[in-house]
Write a structure and sequence with these properties.
It is built from 17 helices and 16 strands. It has 478 residues and is an alpha/beta fold. The strands form three sheets. It has a seven-stranded mixed beta sheet. Strands 10-13-12-11-14-15-16 form a seven-stranded mixed beta sheet, sandwiched between helices. A two-stranded antiparallel ribbon has the order 8-9. The chain is globular and about 65 Å long. Keywords: Carbohydrate metabolism, Glucose metabolism, Glycosyltransferase, Transferase.
Length: 478
């Protein structure tokens, strides 16, 4: 019997944002909190997703739930459980919504029955918890099929899709056909971009962009010296005598030490602390194109052999993310490509699987790696939004990203980062990276502008206000 489980999320006070806002914005946020409490009085707000760690949803949901609880809203986060076959089907749907065939496996009646069977099991437990009038926010294809059962007991069901493709094709249509029964039961739908909204949702769709919590462990302030110490302790940087302790502050305020090492494939020693690092951090997913980043960096080194820079491709430990069955195969493909490179290239390319046993420790490692990076890249072939770029921009890092999906909504080319028009063009990506490595003053200016852009548009306070609007719309529907 498959049952969902609840992830405990500690309440966080909204008051911590007061010092980050002017008086008018702080007053508005307080008013929104009062409105949320009134709208949700006697009701619960349930978030349901498919994994508690790895990926953007697992980054966004706990922070929103924490602040909702801090505003005295009864908010929860539940994670469904599934079989390997179920997650294979949902990964195929994930690729299809991006317009890709993935492994080309079918999405027919037999797959739909196996998908529905897993969700029926999960729904039995959910129907004990969810009460009439509660708000249920289902995240991504894995949960969409829960909508009919939850709507039938009187819950206000909203489905949120964090992924999509700007120009739909036959694969996108195939995915929407598969998800049609669940979509029909949702009162409202939420998308990251207007271009992702399918025709069947056009009359009940909201556009709400993701956000980061600037107080989360992954985004908390960190000195360069501590960042280097954490990376040295993890095996991602050469250690130096007299370094401070590799410590960070947990969400509960307790100081902790980074103790686990990354699983790293490299030739020779770790990068020296003074060598500029080009860094991409993402799931081991072919749509994130880690192989393309490696190939483009190899091209850059061949074109400019005296350029002083090294590449770090980092992602979660491949066995740690339940709903991503492609991770191990993708990593193996990248490793095979790395082995094909010359000795000169392999010495300057490092592949790292970051430890995921302690999620806050993992967040601290990612924080350190992003803050130490000379350039943070996201050369995705398709991308729903791309929180790794948001995080890097908050840390005032110069970024190079593909002009696809939500990356285009964050990076203004030449103003706060660089966009690569054709994500498959290795030469264009290599040229963008080279231009920033050779002009550090320009890179620093782009980073400063990036930080302010995130502050204005992509923090959790804006996101919370969007959800108050969502609840108001549900109330208006009756």
């Amino acid at each position: 019997m498959l049952k969902p489980f609840e992830v405990h999320v500690q309440a966080e006070p909204l008051a911590r944002f007061e010092r980050e806002m002017d008086a008018a914005r702080w007053s508005t946020l307080q008013a929104q909190a009062v409105k949320a409490r009134a709208l949700m009085a006697g009701r619960a707000f349930w978030n349901i997703s498919s994994t508690a760690k790895g990926g953007g949803v697992a980054e966004i949901v706990p922070r929103l739930v924490a602040y909702a609880r801090g505003a005295s809203v009864d908010a929860h986060w539940l994670v469904l459980t599934g079989t390997p076959e179920f997650f294979h089907i949902t990964k195929r749907l994930h690729h299809a919504l991006h317009g890709s065939r993935g492994d080309g496996s079918p999405l027919g009646a037999a797959e739909h029955e196996r998908y529905d069977e897993v969700l029926r099991d999960n729904a039995e437990e959910l129907l004990v918890l969810v009460q009439p009038g509660d708000v249920v926010l289902l995240h991504d294809p894995q949960t969409c099929g829960l909508a009919p059962a939850l709507a039938a007991v009187g819950a206000h069901v909203v489905w949120r899709c964090h992924i999509g493709r700007d120009t739909p094709n036959a694969e996108v249509t195939r995915a929407w056909e598969f998800l049609a029964p669940g979509l029909a039961a949702a009162r409202l739908t939420i998308f990251t971009r207007a271009a992702y909204v399918p025709p069947q949702c056009a009359d009940r769709a909201l556009v709400i962009q993701p956000s980061i919590d600037i107080f989360a462990v992954k985004n908390q302030p960190m000195t360069p010296e501590v960042a280097r110490a954490i990376l040295a302790n993890t095996g991602l940087l050469r250690g130096t005598p007299g370094s401070p302790e590799p410590i960070f502050t947990r969400a509960d305020g307790v100081t902790a030490r980074v103790s686990r090492c990354a699983d790293i494939m490299q030739l020779g020693t770790e990068p020296s602390p003074d060598v500029p690092l080009v860094v991409q951090i993402s799931r081991w997913d072919p749509l994130k194109d880690p192989a393309g980043v490696l190939s483009a960096f190899a091209l850059l080194l061949r074109q400019s052999p005296n350029l002083r820079a090294e590449l770090v491709l980092a992602g979660p430990a491949v066995t740690s993310v339940a709903d991503d069955p492609d991770a191990a195969a993708t990593l193996q493909d990248v490793l095979a490509l790395w082995r094909q490179q010359s000795h000169f290239v392999r010495q300057r390319v490092h592949l790292a699987c970051l430890p995921m046993t302690d999620l806050e420790e993992n967040a601290a490692i990612v924080n350190a790696l992003q803050r130490h990076a000379a350039i943070v890249a996201q050369k995705s072939l398709q991308e729903g939004f791309g929180l790794t770029i948001t995080e890097a921009m908050w840390k005032a890092r110069p970024v190079v990203a593909s002009a696809v999906g939500g990356l285009q909504d964050q990076v203004v080319h030449g103003e706060n980062g660089l966009l690569v028009r054709d994500p498959g063009d290795r030469a264009e990506f290599a040229g963008a990276v080279r231009s920033l490595l050779e002009a550090p003053e320009r890179a620093a200016l782009l980073g400063r502008r990036a930080h302010e852009h995130v502050r204005a548009h992509f923090t959790v306070t804006r996101h919370l206000t969007d959800f108050v609007r969502l609840i108001e719309l549900l109330k208006a529907q009756g």
